[in-house]
Amino acid sequence: MQWTELIIFVLLFGLVTVMGFVAARWRAAESLDHLDEWGLGGRKFGSWITWFLVGGDLYTAYTFVAVPALLFGAGAMGFFALPYTIIAYPLVFLPVLRLWSVSRARGYVTPADFVRGRYGSPILALLVAITGIVATMPYIALQLVGLEAVLRSMGFNAAGFLGHLPLLIAFIILALYTYQSGLRAPALIAFVKDILIYIVILVAVIYLPAKLGGWDAIFGAAEDKLTAENPKTGAPFGDILLNSNNQLQYATLALGSAMALFLYPHSVTGVLASRGRDVLKRNMSALPAYSLLLGLLALLGFAAIAAGVTPLTNNATGRPDTNTIIPELFNTQFPSWFAGIAFAAIGIGALVPAAIMSIAAANLWTRNIYKEYIRKNATPKDEAKQAKVASLVVKFGAVLFIVVIDPQYAIDLQLIGGVIILQTLPAVAIALYTKWLHRWALIAGWAVGMGWGMVLLYQIPNPASGRMHFGGSALALDKLNIFGWVPFDGSKVQIYVGFVALIANLLVAVIVTLIIRRMKNVSNGDDDTMGDDYHVDEHDENLRPIAVH
Amino acid sequence: MSSDKPGGRTTGLVFSPWNLLLLIPFIVLFTPIYNRRSPELFGMPFFYWFQFAVIIVGVLSTITVYRMTRNKPVRPAAGAAPDVDRLDEGSAE
């Protein structure tokens, strides 16, 4: 057990716990018994809070441990996270403004609420809601993977249930204050988390290159190790540059991930909690500051190679866990008090997104399943109560995932989650601009995109880990088989599965729309929204009041 | 049953030419441009520092769009009724 690290970790964890409970009273309304309050923090967060909240939401503990681990294991390909977060903000700059305005005007809390209003279709809304919940659950579980990597590095590396106990305690505390304070808790904690992360990364990227002989020595060591032959596959592990086969995968994975980012319910929650359009515009310009951080952090994966870090063996699974390389890097290269701060930064970094994700999933459940199908006459107070309980269920589901089932499944499911959340793009993002695509065509496109995406993921092996299925998201083009037609036979060029599935989804949606329009008598649903709704802003007159019962 | 509102206005699209600046950062998707080792900067291959540089380009383009579209009162496209009073119509269930 590493006592210095542990004491600092526990102190900082205690601090955010107090903040989490106090948050209920922070700029509070008279009561939290409304989803506008519990689930969206009163829809009044300004630029700074939104910046910390959305930043804390998108750059998660898992990102902090997994992206460097990817560079550590496979080289340049892992750096896709940088172009991904570079293009995400310019890409969504305009659509999120429309989404914010229409949600503010109509009182929508979730993306599925918008689909419900736009298309008058509870079924389409249900599909969007379920897709969102299914994609979010493993994402929450992955936050636990990040947290556990830190706990195991601090010495809590027991086998079996005992090894998971610290994780369980941390999550019970998190569940309690999220239950009480709603979105205000992660919003307040995000300040601590991000300040810690910034300090840790900045110190690390200045100190480590100096200690390890400069960036050229770090890249040199990385190149030597990565280009050596992997005994399991007979091919190199990777390289510090891309090769001719993985460039398309790099670009499509970055683009696909960027398009998926703001379709995730937790990102939408962060957006809808902001006060107005100006706050969002300012944030779309300022959030890339985190990209800089992420890029520097990613390079620590190479620094870990140069420092000769080896991943810790996870005593619960018996396998070496590459997600521990960043905690181990801090463990071996820094004084223990600083490692303690780094561990706390990553650990608290798991709590913020986990809280927001569980709130987002709970909102979806409450608004689009519970109120739509189970209790149609639920009052706003009932909704808030239901969502609070749902947030507990979601979190404990995620814990069970890690404790009972192999964490590897959480990672596989997260991979699938990215592919399936992309399939809601036509119904959510395109619908913000036009209702041209027919609602039944959207359902057909969704079904094809989901089904085909899943089949393609199933077919991808991973020779390095010896797995036959769900071995990654990179599809070799020669595996692309459309009813027996193989358009790129013999090509080893790889592409992101989610991108392929989205194109199929869009094609089907367009074709079915054209067919339905010929039939003429099929309703496309009543549209609750009006043109003006998409331009509403905070100071407009006659704006819908927040949290009315 | 048609979903179209009277006058066929359903989206209220607004477009400013400044928005085109948002396309610039997408240069980072064209990997052949920068998938090279040289020139290096502080021992970092071009592949890496080029992408760091595009972060700054991206920030500049989003800030420009933000500033240039800020103070213009946004008007819905032709045919839209400008009064916001209608927003309350049917907004409460």
TrEMBL record, chain A:
Pfam family for this entry, one: SSF
Chief localization class?
A: membrane
Q: Where in the cell is it found?
A: Membrane
Q: Which residues cross the membrane?
A: 6-24, 45-71, 77-100, 121-141, 161-179, 191-210, 248-266, 287-309, 337-366, 387-405, 411-433, 440-460, 495-516
GO molecular function, a single term: transmembrane transporter activity
Membrane protein topology class: Multi-pass membrane protein
Entry keyword set: Membrane, Transmembrane, Transmembrane helix, Transport
Question: What Gene Ontology cellular-component terms does the record carry?
Answer: plasma membrane
Q: Which domain of life is it from?
A: Bacteria
Q: Which family does it belong to?
A: Belongs to the sodium:solute symporter (SSF) (TC 2.A.21) family.
Name of the protein: SSS family solute:Na+ symporter
UniProt lineage: Bacteria, Bacillati, Actinomycetota, Actinomycetes, Pseudonocardiales
TrEMBL record, chain B:
* Origin superkingdom: Bacteria
Keyword set, alphabetical order = Membrane, Transmembrane, Transmembrane helix
The record, for InterPro entries, names: DUF3311 (IPR021741)
What segments bear the compositional bias annotation Basic and acidic residues? 83-93
Task: Give the Pfam families listed for this entry.
Answer: DUF3311 (PF11755)
Membrane-traversing stretches: 12-34, 46-66
Renumbered residue ranges of the record's region Disordered: 74-93
Q: What is this protein called?
A: Putative membrane protein
**Source organism per UniProt:** Actinophytocola algeriensis
